[in-house]
Acyl-ACP thioesterase
Amino acid sequence: MSGLKFRRKHIVHTFECDVKKEMTLPALINIMVETSGLQSRHLGNTNEQMSERGLSWIIIQYDMQITQMPKSRETITIETEAISYNRFFTYRKFRAFDEADNILVEVLTTFAMMDIKTRKLTQIQEELVAPYQAEKIRTMIRAPKIQAVNLETASELPFRVRYLDIDGNNHVNNAKYFDWMINSIDLEILKNYTVGSVNIKYEKEVNFGNIINSFVSVEEVEKDKVMTVHHIENDHAIACRANITWVKRN
Amino acid sequence: MSGLKFRRKHIVHTFECDVKKEMTLPALINIMVETSGLQSRHLGNTNEQMSERGLSWIIIQYDMQITQMPKSRETITIETEAISYNRFFTYRKFRAFDEADNILVEVLTTFAMMDIKTRKLTQIQEELVAPYQAEKIRTMIRAPKIQAVNLETASELPFRVRYLDIDGNNHVNNAKYFDWMINSIDLEILKNYTVGSVNIKYEKEVNFGNIINSFVSVEEVEKDKVMTVHHIENDHAIACRANITWVKRN
């Protein structure tokens, strides 16, 4: 299973980094998704052409493995590769490499096509995915199951969906959900642990002005490894779920 | 008055843009300040060397004139120029140009040096500014006076300072204040007007976990032009003041 690859270099900006001078998850996701947008433009398949057909790509799930988060001012290579597609989903990998071509991050992403008017999923249109040379498959690629928040031990923090959270597609940028999740985690974990993996699934859209609640519970996985278990609740429905594993820093 | 100039190209990312597909103020400020950091590195004058001396650059004020905000996927040139300095302040211009070299944005910035331990301003150390070849002056460059919020008509919105708001210098990135201000403005203004100028002055630091209040009142300037008048209050003290003028879109 593999399709066209597309690569670009990126120098990690200081403002893309956290207090540890490591790239933040939202910044990493933004630059990766931008890279697939650049590949689409390169193949003559712009978002504008999708819009003209009344369609929009939406992101369903990320499954991320992080060996080492890129560091401030590091030159990284971002690679994207259209892997495969079935009737309803397309699968794409993103990778980040350091200057010696060691892999830092690998992400498997599930995309779907949405009908802009009905806001519902629609079947993949073959002529729109043809340029990426991905393999047509009959099966679904299943990401790891996402464990549910333990509501008995969970903490909860409200966030207001802000004007600047809304992007040019008129919806909340998918990287903002990482903000709401990370910013609800206990400071001791954020300071003493580093991200090892993320599995996030988007279930319902949230809109400008909504007050969402970010729930998080914590589980010990093994010695020096914990998992933060998240969901985003909006108007009593779950909009997004995620599991993040964290490895203790030396 | 002029010193060394430094230029770099930047392609505006879609995630740096708002619902109008125009670059946001925080994104523009981030990329500009990063450019002066690159010039410093280029001149062998890194933030790390400043830290070793127990010093840090801090931003006191921005005075911005915006002819046209850069647009999504536009290639712009960011220019920075060390203008001049006196005993306590250094002055630097930032400019953004379009591909035909028309000026889009011009910013005059006032920097100061802070002693990291005492968190107080310290005199400019001449050997640290010498590489920029800026002119030494005896006077202060005064930015336009910032008008005060009309508390009788102001609205007020709280924001929690989040973990991801803190940068590698261990304080709130100065662009975050723009988030708090813009996100407190009435949606009708944000939708129907475009930014013409900004004058912002930083007065006190805010810290992780603080709940700040973003105050805004609105004044008619002339036909099709309004000014939003802002301050950020933290623990009953004003941390930051700003005036933003907005011009009605056609």
